[in-house]
Each structure stands twice: as C-alpha cells, then as structure tokens.
Amino acid sequence: MAMDRGKGRGKAGLWAAAAVIVFMIAALPLSAQAGNAKKGEKIAKTRKLGNCVACHYLPGVESPGNIGPNLVESMQEYTMADRKEVVQWIRDARKFNPGTIMPPFGTNKILTPEQIDDLVTYLYTLKK
Ligand code: HEC
Hints:
This protein is mostly helical. Helix content is about 55%, strand content about 0%. The chain has five helices and no strands.
C-alpha cells in the first residue's frame, strides 16, 4: 500500500514537471518577442545606453531634452500594429527622415535588437 501511494506521488510529480516544461516552452517565444519594459525604461534613461532623454521627453526624468518629439505624445498615435515602425525609428530613423539627427541605434550597433525590443515594449507602456 505504501508503495502504491509512493507511485502515485511520483506520477503527480511527473505531471507537474511536464506542465512546467510545457509552460516554459509556451512562454519562451512570447517573452522573446515581448521585450522587458523595465529594462527598456532603464536603457531609455541611461546616458551610456539609449540616452533617449537627451532629445525626448519621458516621464520621471529631470530636465529631459526637447529636440525630438515628446515620446508620451508620440506613442498615443501608435497602435500595436505599428510596432515594427516604432522599432524602425530606433533601429535607424534615416528610413523616415534621411536628415535626422537621431542616432541609428540598431545600424550603428549602439543597442542590440533585444535592447531595442525592450525599449519599444517600454514605450508602449506610455500609451494611455
Ligand atoms: C540626438 C537626438 C535624439 C536622440 C538621442 C534620440 N532621438 Fe528619437 N527622435 C529625434 C528627433 C529629432 C525625432 C523627430 C523625427 C526626426 O527629426 O527625424 C525623433 C523621433 C523619434 C521617434 C518617432 C516619434 C514620432 O512621433 O513618430 C521615436 C519613436 C523615437 N525618436 C524614439 C527614440 C528613442 C527610443 C531613443 C533612445 C534610444 C531616441 N529616440 C533617441 C531625436 C533623437
């Protein structure tokens, strides 16, 4: 009897492990695509990383720059369907404006594709 109960527990444990693995596999591509908003915010506001606030208004920053548009206002204009466009702005804004002063963060490898993805995820949190 005791052995049977032990077997039962083992099976339950196996199912739990299987469920965790299935969940991890399901969550992986999602997180890879979704980006990390917290990391993105840090990149945007850190001088050595994106330093977007040198030119753009972002909330919670003391005396941000205003050479570029206020990104809170800009983000109200974008829907989730425009995500690729927002990524492109950061990757290389010259696609939209050949004479832009915004640095091509992706093309010039200032930021990695993952960092740009994190940034865009953060920017979408500014949508009201
Ligand atoms: C040197 C100044 C500068 C820096 C640094 C900069 N930008 Fe820009 N950005 C601009 C300007 C100026 C524009 C307006 C379009 C243009 O003139 O090319 C712009 C446009 C944008 C747009 C499009 C806005 C809209 O209304 O459609 C986004 C999104 C954007 N920037 C995000 C960022 C992010 C994120 C960073 C940090 C990784 C960043 N920018 C860093 C100057 C800058």
